[in-house]
UniProtKB/TrEMBL annotation:
This is Putative subunit RPA3 of replication protein A. InterPro entries: NA-bd_OB-fold. The lineage of its organism: Eukaryota, Fungi, Fungi incertae sedis, Microsporidia, Ordosporidae. Gene3D superfamilies: Nucleic acid-binding proteins (2.40.50.140). It comes from Ordospora colligata OC4.
């Protein structure tokens, strides 16, 4: 499932898009719009290319990375935000 925020989704598989904001207590903080997601990562260099798609599982309020896919800096964040809203209303479609 695609999320902007991982709160309330413990144990679920998740995909999150965001930009590297900072390292904090050994975790990467991704930011998308006004939301922040903490990611347990394997390689910080994978996160420095603009927007990234991170897939993994939500554990202890953090996204435990299983894969990272660079998207670049020319990503339409508003369109993705609209997609998230539709996907949350119709989870069976996505």
């Amino acid at each position: 499932m695609y999320f902007e925020d991982v709160a309330g989704h413990e144990g679920e598989a998740a995909s999150v898009i965001g930009k590297f904001e900072r390292l904090e207590d050994g975790a990467i903080v991704l930011k998308f719009k006004d939301k922040e997601v903490y990611v347990k990562h394997s390689n910080v260099d994978s996160y420095r290319s603009g927007f990234v798609l991170v897939c993994g599982t939500i554990e202890n309020g953090m996204l435990k990375e299983s894969s990272v896919h660079p998207i670049g800096s020319e990503f339409d964040a508003d369109m993705y935000h609209r997609f998230i809203n539709v996907a949350s209303k119709y989870p069976g479609m996505f």
